[in-house]
Prior knowledge:
This protein is mainly α.
Amino acid sequence: MPSTPRRRSRNIAPPREDVLAAVMATVAERGLDGLTMAGLGREVRMSSGHLLYYFRTKDELLLQTLEWSEARLGAERRALLTGPGTARERLDAYIALYVPDGHRDPHWTLWLEVWNRSQDADDDARARQAAIEDAWHRDLTELLADGITRGEFRAVDTDRAATRLRALLDGFSVHVTVGIPGTGREQVLDQMRGYADETLTPPGPSAPATDITPAS
Length: 216
């Protein structure tokens, strides 16, 4: 007779990814107010003391969860940026990936919390946050450069253009996440498409000069 599977001992740590996935699921279902070390411990069958042993602080747990979520987004971002399609189509896909799915998007909710807590973060935590930002910025800069080379975008300073575009995306994304009226996901995507048209569309051919002879 096969033995009955034994439940995981509370003294044995589950895989790190299981813990981080449980954090994200809790944020998605109950928000950050519903995330406690005791509640998370019950979810993954660990004591809150064991969680603190592995992650040291709640700030570190949140940052590691954000890094895990960003790694998954990064793989998706790189796939779409290296995939088929025009540079503009890939830019639209980048923007769609960047903008939150809607009010209380769990990834953005977590990101905002980590930002807020980073005021007192140490140098290591700040460097890890900067690495996340740098990855988004680097990929956008390369995409803009590719679009310029293809003639799809006007010649711009790619670093400066990427900084401005991401600043606009960040502002709109905060509005979507906190649920400010008039800034839903589809409205933001429309705004961003308009901004891209205005700032990146190459100038059209110059109108031919007209030889007008003044009347005598």
